[in-house]
Records
---
Amino acid sequence: MTTTTPGRRERLRAETVTEIKDSARRLLVAGGPTAVSLRAIARDVGMTAPALYRYFASLDALVLAIVTDLFEDLRHAVEDVAAAHADEEPLTRVGHMARQFRRWALAHPAEFALMFGSPVPGVTQFAEQCTPLTDAGARLGETFFEVLGEHYARHPFGGEPHDLPDPALRELFQPYLETFGDRFPLPVIYLFVAAWTRLYGLVAMEVFGHLAWAMTDIEPLFEVELAETVRRLSR
Amino acid sequence: MTTTTPGRRERLRAETVTEIKDSARRLLVAGGPTAVSLRAIARDVGMTAPALYRYFASLDALVLAIVTDLFEDLRHAVEDVAAAHADEEPLTRVGHMARQFRRWALAHPAEFALMFGSPVPGVTQFAEQCTPLTDAGARLGETFFEVLGEHYARHPFGGEPHDLPDPALRELFQPYLETFGDRFPLPVIYLFVAAWTRLYGLVAMEVFGHLAWAMTDIEPLFEVELAETVRRLSR
DNA sequence: GGAATCAGTGAACGTTGTTTACCCTGGCAA
DNA sequence: TTGCCAGGGTAAACAACGTTCACTGATTCC
């Protein structure tokens, strides 16, 4: 019988796609980036490897899709914590968001490596063609823009706040502006990127173990750096 | 005839080792980290793949050796530029060193990815056992300690300079202190790591293309951030 | 009911790292 | 000079990988 709804094929297909993705993410957290292979996924979902090509053009395409999903996951995690402190000052909210970013990274090191680590050759080349990934990355950035924009609206930085004049900023952020338009003030974008790179540097080095030669507990340093950075944002 | 010097075997062996390493690095810069494979190296040097096991225990061990070499290369590049400005103020010298770090990273993106990117599973596990890699990394750090120490000796930070009291610092940097001892003042170590993570964050994101969605030319931002960081070092 | 599309399989190709058994040559000692 | 033996190197093989191709069944559509 099998009730013939119009989108039965599509529904089955979508279910299989999520099943494949779930399996891939399971393998990713279990064995790291190298453990996610077409054949392992196929074994896991009970198919043969070539069958996966009905759903993804290649392994790289699959990984790219997963990375895009991960960016959405991370963005939601950051948005949730921002919403949970909706009544606080924008800058303290940014602090919460930064801590959440670090927490998420430490809890998902393999995923973090895929998203923010050294670019995987195939995935990067795909990413240059398709836009969903850069979109997801930009959306994560805009989550911060939103809150920083609030602060900016209340305290629009007296004088020369952002070290660079407006026309220079406009030229500097041409890639973003070209794709997403003037949704946020230039100084907000600039200050985010400056703060973002600091945050990224500390968290990435911690997750990747690049500070293990010097120290093990990074949290005190993170808190100091976060305070310093937030202080700078409030100038 | 072949003049039978005492260490002929060893000399031949050493030559082959460097030949293998050179080939690997050639493949690395040509095709990225994934292009460096045992069989490709073997083809390049005119041997079969199993023969390489006479020189390295595994591909991971070979890569580990190369990464260690790369750290030395980078350290020399930084030291050279430090020596070239030996007569200038320590803090301006640190600025030159930071710029050199960025230059080197941009000129050697594949090598940089291997050294500072997401950890390759096998290499990392090796690195935890053997120490030469962490040693090389620490030596690179100490290159900066040296110069920062000069500044510290001239201007020993009045008051509470480094946000954290000395005993806390001692506990924080226990891994470094345990291995390398009290060669440099604690505040110097702390300030270096804090500055290092900022520098790393910006350069890594640039090299890995993680800022491409927002901006293409990172240099202006780098200069601003560098100035900011150096200013903080001079507090 | 026939045709076309789709999901899935099996076999194959060319990679990869690694192990094993074997060979040969250079260096050393008797 | 002779014998030996360790070390360098090879060929074959194994298991795993991504990917392609030809093919089969089922499902959907007209």
---
Amino acid sequence: MKKRLKRVYKKLYSIFGRQYWWPADSAFEVMVGAILTQSTSWANVEKAILNLKKHKALSSRRLRTISLSRLALLIRPAGYYNIKAARLKNFADFFHKQYKADISKMRSANTGILRQQLLSVNGIGPETADSILLYALDKPVFVVDAYTKRILSRHGFIKDNYGYSQVQDLFMKNLKRDAKLFNEYHALLVRLGKDYCKKNKVKCEVCPLGYDK
DNA sequence: CACCAGGCAAGTA
DNA sequence: TACTTGCATGGT
């Protein structure tokens, strides 16, 4: 499995090259984006983030003080806006109370402890927590998403009923614990998924990885 | 028109 | 523990 996973990575990298994830101006913007992109296209998230920037609302202080309804209005393009507005506030409150809204304090925390703390915030699940750890804080944690499972399942690496942590373990136990590698690998899987492995538009016959299921 | 996108929590059995 | 459902906009 170690060789197979590394071979897939090299293949994807040779085809698509660097993906430059996560596109953002700051670590805080990555964290906000991680919540906004829950089951939502990145193009819509970009509109929401632009609105937050235009109204100077992209800070933990502003996210805590702005009214729920006004925040919801700003992030409307990202969908699920009422729920996500509450989730952003939950996260901003946590960030302020636990880490004094200080990214460097958060970065120096123990990864396992921090992951548990993030998961305890209502609105932050495994993928969002790991996206924050990896893409905002450079922690060597592999992010699993719907594309990851779909691609691995269709290529026979896993059964389609594997859970989040099972898929995550597959990567983390068989690859060097390297944030840069995890960063690029996950981004490449999403790239492949967008181009060739959409939910109901399977293009296995032209998938660069081949089709060996 | 239908389908879905870089999920999650709450409810049900 | 293991499903099911609500949440919602904007692009294809």
